[in-house]
Amino acid sequence: MAEIIQERIEDRIPELEQLERVGLFSRAEIKAIIKKASDLEYKIQRRALFKEDFINYIQYEINLLELIQRRRTRIKYSFKKDEIEHSIVHRIQGVFRRASAKWKDDVQLWLSYVVFCKKWATKAQLSKVFSAMLAIHSNKPALWIMAAKWEMEDRLSSESARQLFLRALRFHPECPKLYQEYFRMELMHAEKLRKEKQEFEKADMDMKEIDHSEEILNGELARIIYKNSISKIKGAEFHVSLLSIAQLFDFAKDLQKEIYDDLQAMHTDDPLTWDYVARRELEIQSQPGDEQPLTKQAKAVEVGRREERCCAVYEEAVKTLPTEGMWKCYINFCLERFSKKTSSAFLRGKRLERTMISFRKAHELKLLSESQYKQWIELLLPRDFFTEALEVSEAGIELFKDSVTMWQMKLQVLIASKRPDIAMFVEEAFVYLKPQVCLPLWISWAEWSEGAQSHEDTEAIFKKAILAITGTSSVTLKDKYLDWAYRIGGNKKARTVFKSLQENRPFSVDFFRKMIQFEKEQESCKMANLREYYERALREFGSVDSDLWMDYIKEELNHPLGRPENCGQIYWRAMKMLQGESAELFVAKHAMHQAGH
């Protein structure tokens, strides 16, 4: 092994001599490079090989290449690249080849190899890397697409890209993404040929050598891919994706029309088809050819007309296809248009009216989902339509009795409309809901009670909630209870609540940090109380939270009644309790603190 390493170091001597001779590196730097290279060579030549050693070797060589480049720029020297950079690039490629041969399944390693070749190697070399990678990872469509895009965009070889896509489709005959990208590539190729033809015609040059048929120039190859793909992959979503790609190319109007007509003919029973057809109306002008600038009012009228046309299509759709999915598309469209900002009060009113009507119709047909009932209530509440909001929330609960979201929405309506029967309603909800999902209801009830009832009533709600909610869900509740206690009774009340909960696990770190902060905000901040809170927190989180230990040490050092002599003991306790990375982090933070940072 020593002979191999010596030989590889000797292979470097010509490039290192050139680096020193032309003034890019000093003799001392060359010696340092040789020493580092020897260490790296030893690690990748030994019997037990590790991927990290190869990565470190490659990274060191790449850093060296970049340093050479920066120094060339600085001293304005651009010669001897064959003897210097090309030698290093060739060596890195050799290491990449060894690594990728040993760890064939590591896609990230292959991608690193590709990135390196894109920056430093020739196109022919990168083409070989792609071939080697795809021979092993032929089961990954994304890699085929990457290779084909590179052939098309960097090598400008549409034929090579086409061959890669065809090979990929043999492995993945039903992969939508492959068909989409192949379709896009053929349209890009046709567009490129059309531009070439136009340039030749402008220059009045001989067209014989680039005489492509009109079919090719009009995207016939893309049309063939489209026809093949829809025979393999069914569904309106894929069909619409191809139409969206075709619409990026102005010359493909006939192809766009063919795809659009097929979409309507083949997928009439899919809500996506109707949704796409309806939304197209937004792009069509009411009076084609009239390109005069419009006033704000005229623009609002024009937008209103387009939206009316969209809704006419949706109305036809929900009659033809009366399903929950179709109504969802219609309602989502109405909500999107309503959320668009406009200065026209007429347009804003029309959008709101249209959205309300669509919700009501879908509700009458019992075709609204739980999330849509929530959207409907959220639309009604800010506009103070309390009576209708209450009716909608009751209808939602009737359909989705085990949904905490629907019960919470009704609670919001009752609170907003200042109804007195809140407690009765919440107790009713608890009959139908599992205790562990009721946390949002308990919190909303307590927040309402804080503003509407006595402190005793609110505390009673918190105490009931603590008994009902257990496990991790209770952590948020305890934090809320502590915050409320401090707001209404200051540190004294917060401390009482803390003591009542201190054995009621689980807790969050914030639960203890809140108490520490409350104590520090007092005029007479007691160190004994701070110690108690830190000790309680460390019992729960001392094995994972290095910040708690550091804050405890700082408190002993900085508090007027602190005991700096305790810091050593706290440090050793921390070292015993903390594990792994947490211990390393603590040591680093403690060292920084001692150094004054």
TrEMBL record:
Q: Which InterPro entries match?
A: HAT, TPR-like_helical_dom_sf, Utp6, UTP6_C, UTP6_N
Output the GO biological process annotations, alphabetical, semicolon-separated.
Answer: maturation of SSU-rRNA from tricistronic rRNA transcript (SSU-rRNA, 5.8S rRNA, LSU-rRNA)
| GO terms for cellular component | Pwp2p-containing subcomplex of 90S preribosome; small-subunit processome
Q: Which UniProt keywords are given for this protein, alphabetically ordered?
A: Nucleus, Repeat, rRNA processing
UniProt superkingdom: Eukaryota
Boundaries of every U3 small nucleolar RNA-associated protein 6 homolog C-terminal domain copy: 308-578
Record-annotated U3 small nucleolar RNA-associated protein 6 N-terminal domain positions? 9-91
Gene Ontology MF terms: snoRNA binding
Q: Where in the cell is it found?
A: Nucleus, Nucleolus
Name the SUPFAM superfamilies on file: TPR-like
- Pfam family of this protein, just one? UTP6_C
Which family is annotated? Belongs to the UTP6 family.
Write out the function statement from the record. Part of the small subunit (SSU) processome, first precursor of the small eukaryotic ribosomal subunit. During the assembly of the SSU processome in the nucleolus, many ribosome biogenesis factors, an RNA chaperone and ribosomal proteins associate with the nascent pre-rRNA and work in concert to generate RNA folding, modifications, rearrangements and cleavage as well as targeted degradation of pre-ribosomal RNA by the RNA exosome. Involved in nucleolar processing of pre-18S ribosomal RNA.
- Outline the subunit composition: Part of the small subunit (SSU) processome, composed of more than 70 proteins and the RNA chaperone small nucleolar RNA (snoRNA) U3.
| UniProt name for this protein | U3 small nucleolar RNA-associated protein 6 homolog
